[in-house]
Amino acid sequence: MFTCTATIDPAFVIAPVPRRLFGSFVEHMGRCVYGGIYEPGHPESDVDGIRLDVVKLARELGVTTVRYPGGNFVSNHHWEDGVGPRDERPSTLDLAWRSIEPNTFGLNEFMAWTRQADVEPMMAVNLGTRGVEDACNLLEYANFAGGTRYSDLRKAHGVREPHDIKLWCLGNEMDGPWQVGQKTATEYGRLAAQTAKAMRRIDPSIELVACGSSNDRMPTFGTWEAEVLDQAYDAVDYVSLHAYFEQHGEDRVGFLASAQVMDHFIDGVVATCDHIAAKKRSRRKLMLSFDEWNLWYESRFAGQDRLDWMRAPRLIEDEYTVEDAVVLGNLLMSLLRHSDRVTIACLAQLVNVIAPIRTEPDAGAWRQTIFYPFALTARYARGDVLRVEPTSPALYSQTLGDVAAIDVAATRDPETGELTIFAVNRSDDQSADLRLRLVADGPAEVVEHTVFGGQDLLATNTKETPSRVEPRSSTGHTLDGTNLCLELPPVSWSMIRTAPPVSTANATSHCTGSRGQVAASRPAA
Ligand code: AHR
Fold it and tell me: Phi and psi of 18, rounded to 5°?
């Protein structure tokens, strides 16, 4: 066992927890839409074909914002094909995933789904094969009250009130050679700025996201952001980041420390944005939209060019292990500690395609391992994110060099005084003894201690065993006055919550100092 220390001080506020940090992504790809959120005829579906078991899990997951309809899909998508009477909608070629798109689910169906799932929509426009005019038409259809060609078309399609969609992505991964309509940074920067200008004339209340690099390994990473923002800095509100993590070769430590890579990536994009702001003498701070992130065993994917024209093929339905969930929980900690700049993030994707929720036509929906740390973080990361600087021994990664063995993040709700601490131990052979000093203006008690990992690291949830893996509650803590000690098992993600005692009259007896014995401890929520 090794020992680490940290101080949790409510005065060290980074930023309020942005609720949009718990977003996800629904792309017309594989079985995310067809056979995922939408499956007419399935016993769990309603009369409109919406799978209610998936809606229920999306709500349980705590998803707040959902990006749609792509992804690479959007770059040759004609949104008009997906609205109006279903029997008049054409089947079309989706060039991104070499699939047949039936268009039986489109904008209005998605908007109805967002209301059922209680999420905010985040819409992407096609800047691959289309441009300014098409983006304006779509915005007019979606947000304009009425009395014009596209707003009246929406009404004719049975949607009287405007959708009032606030968040819009200006294309998707426009730097990628795989993207239909790929652009240079100069071409895209100008197009993004012009599209933004025109869209804001239609609806000045919208928020716009410019495409950053597809990932931080792109040869143009850094220069892409700088060139695009040179042209579009004043026209947009966010720049996007995308990242998918997997283990490379034998470097398990590097994989377990993926959050460190995410930290570094975010810091690089923040620096680039602020460099452009300085050049422009702008006092405006651009925010970051991490609108695709997850684990993806990309090395197992045959590639887009090998796909055959099918409807809703099974694409990248990765099955996640307990170890993957530990890494995912840690990635959320990275997002939290950057919440002063990253105010939108979307776990890609929501259902079946590299997703926390899985379905099968002949079964119900189930939770993958990665569902749990996401759901718990979305539920309990409340109030303000606090800056935490833990001491930690180093582990050696072949690709990253020295990485910290543990990571800690914390949030505190100033209204209730509830503190939520997230901690990850990346060591695969040693437990960590994490000693936290809580700076507090009153007594606290532990109300929940949940652990994920530490055992059965390769276990997964499947159609046959959908509940094999679940988080478990732990007694591996002591709270003695302001000293909170946690045992972090090897390769584990932990969440511990404290709150002021229900009655301050109980305050004198709340610390026992013995492992797992916290007097007046409330039952786990
Ligand atoms: O999420 C899968 C794909 O990954 C998206 O379509 C694309 O934007 C990214 O490359």
Answer: -75, 125
Helix (H) or strand (E) holding 229: helix 223-232
Alpha-carbon distance of 184 to 210, in angstroms, equals 14
Going by pLDDT thresholds of 50, 70 and 90, the confidence category of residue 456 is: very high
Based on the residue annotation, tell me whether 292 is a catalytic residue of this protein: yes
Same domain for 372 and 393? no
Number of domains forming the structure of the chain: 2
Catalytic residue among 39, 292, 418, 448: 292
Q: 231 and 129, same structural domain?
A: yes
Specify whether 213 is located in the same domain as 156: yes
316, 462: one domain: no
Of 343, 365, 380, the residue at which a domain comes to its end is 380
The DSSP line for 123-178 is EEE--SS--HHHHHHHHHHHH--SSSHHHHHHHHTT--S-----EEEESS-TT-TT
Give per-residue pLDDT as tens, 301-313. Answer: 878 777 889 999 9
- Please write the tens of the pLDDT for every residue from 79-119: 999 999 999 999 999 999 999 999 999 999 999 999 999 99
Please indicate whether residue 291, judged by its CB atom, sits closer than 6 Å to ligand 1: no
| Domain residue limits at 300 | 18-70+92-100+111-380
340-383, pLDDT tens digit by residue?
Answer: 999 999 999 999 999 999 999 999 999 999 999 999 999 999 99
* 292 CB near ligand 1 (under 6 Å): yes
3-state class (DSSP) for residue 398:
coil
